[in-house]
Amino acid sequence: MSILIGKAAPDFKLFNTEKKEIELNSLKGKNVVLLFFPLAFTSTCTKELCEVRDNIAVYNDLNAEVFGISVDSLFALAKFKAEQNLNFDLLSDFNKTVSTAYHTIYPEFVFSMHGVSKRSAFVIDKNGIVRHEEILESAGDIPSFEKIVNTLKELN
Predict the structure, then answer these.
(1) Cα–Cα nearest to 122, from 105, 143, 107
(2) Is 50 designated active site?
(3) What ranges do the domains of the chain cover?
(4) Which of the following is catalytic: 14, 24, 45, 152?
(5) CATH for 27-155 (3.10.310.30, 3.90.930.60, 3.10.20.90, 3.40.30.10)
(6) Is the pTM of this model over 0.90?
(7) 62 membership: H or E segment, kind and range
(8) Distance (Å, rounded) from C-alpha 98 to C-alpha 92?
């Protein structure tokens, strides 16, 4: 069941790996893809984000800004971004406020970790309205990039 489709995307301010604050509302006029992921340096997260890296031209051509979001610190995310040569921003939701606002947080994850982001994808249109939502219960699954791209195509 969709929670946010058709509604205004919850605004946020998070820091990227360059210690710059990114505010969602300041991105109006562009389509935005938010990819919440559980933890940097894990195999499925690496696979997911590297797939986006390898296809970033598709998102750029569709006037979309892509952001990866996790509860990792911005310092851990900076190392992960550098090691994987990621070509889009990673944002630290260390305080878990954005993951909570988007209903994409595990109460309990592996190794008794609490408050880890669920792997999720959101497409937000140029007016700040959520047009696609995919919240995955299994951290081993990857969002449908085909559906994300098709949604972006419909918005252009």
Answers:
(1) 143
(2) no
(3) 27-155
(4) 45
(5) 3.40.30.10
(6) yes
(7) none
(8) 10
